[in-house]
Amino acid sequence: MPPIPLHHRPIPLYPPQFQSRVPVFRVVGAPICRQGSVKKADRFEVRSVCRYNFKAEIAVIQSLIRAGYRFASFDTEFPGTVVKSEIPKHLISQAVPVDVYKMMKTNVDQTHIIQLGLSLSDPFGNLPVCDGAYCCWEFNFSDFDVDCAQHLRNSVSIDVLKRQGIDFPENKCTGICSADFAEEIERSGLVELLPCLTWATFQSAYDFGYLIKMFTGNKELPEDINEFMGNVKTYFGPNVYDIKYMMKFCDGLFGGLNRVAETLGVDRVAGSSHQAGSDSLLTLQTFVKMLKMEKNKGKELWEECGGVLFGLGSLDFWHHC
């Protein structure tokens, strides 16, 4: 599937505390949810999505975006890295983006996505309510076969995912084929809404790698980082935030997602770590908490960190090279 041209120009989505009036969601002609008009719930649910219900859940997600839930976060689970990086983790922020991209591409090209988590909120941080519960989504894919020796994996990563409750045989039987998922995203029209969202991620090079791979027909990722970053901007728009990059502007924040969330006082309210739905929700709630930091820190993060992926650099820089 070739990259799909945008039919609508993405509109910058600013948190309400940074401007007097929240912009109207012009792409679908509907105003966003206003604070106080949202549904309330007393529980949280990670909605499990498989081949039998993924079209219906995509329709639900599309309707929520049209209703104004246009802040989003996503997370992927995959079989780990099968080619070890020569760049130590603590030096990735100082590494040359081209080298970081090559290592990510090498691993994504050789492995299969296992899960995709997706969470939505309105600009006030309110989560959508479905079937009486605040919700996020966890899409389970069938592409990876744990019993197939040709499907490369990092055994340590697979053991971690098993301990966290991922059922590989069940995913193989009832999971979604990633090609079918990408086709439905296009057929439903959801692909045209994605660039109009504000995306919150955490160290998301691999996450974007797997989604761009899916959206472009499961082909190998481009050799050129410029082409890859152009694809990211085409599919997801310019309003992409990576918490790992945002942390460099914040005193006292370091480590992985769990540590950052704990430092900021953000609780994991559903699921567990290394489950894509739960991690996407924790990412979104951590992002919202960072934007609400005192002394204009949230505004600084919003203005300085948009469109920059940790380790890969600025979408605009590469897109115009």
From TrEMBL:
Main location as per UniProt: cytoplasm
UniProt GO MF annotations: metal ion binding; poly(A)-specific ribonuclease activity; RNA binding
Q: What is its EC number?
A: 3.1.13.4
Keyword Isomerase annotated = no
Cofactor(s) required for function per UniProt:
a divalent metal cation
EC main class here is hydrolase
The record's catalysed reaction(s) read: Exonucleolytic cleavage of poly(A) to 5'-AMP
Q: InterPro entries from the xrefs?
A: CNOT7/CNOT8/Pop2, RNase_CAF1, RNaseH-like_sf, RNaseH_sf
Q: Which UniProt keywords apply?
A: Cytoplasm, Exonuclease, Hydrolase, Metal-binding, Nuclease, Nucleus, RNA-binding, Transcription, Transcription regulation
Q: Where in the cell is it found?
A: Cytoplasm; Nucleus
**GO CC aspect terms:** CCR4-NOT complex; cytoplasm; nucleus
Record text on subunit structure and interactions: Component of the CCR4-NOT complex, at least composed of CRR4 and CAF1 proteins.
The job of this chain, per UniProt, is described as: Ubiquitous transcription factor required for a diverse set of processes. It is a component of the CCR4 complex involved in the control of gene expression.
Q: Which family does it belong to?
A: Belongs to the CAF1 family.
What PANTHER family does this protein's entry cite? Answer: CCR4-NOT TRANSCRIPTION COMPLEX SUBUNIT (PTHR10797)
Q: What name has this protein been given in UniProt? A: poly(A)-specific ribonuclease
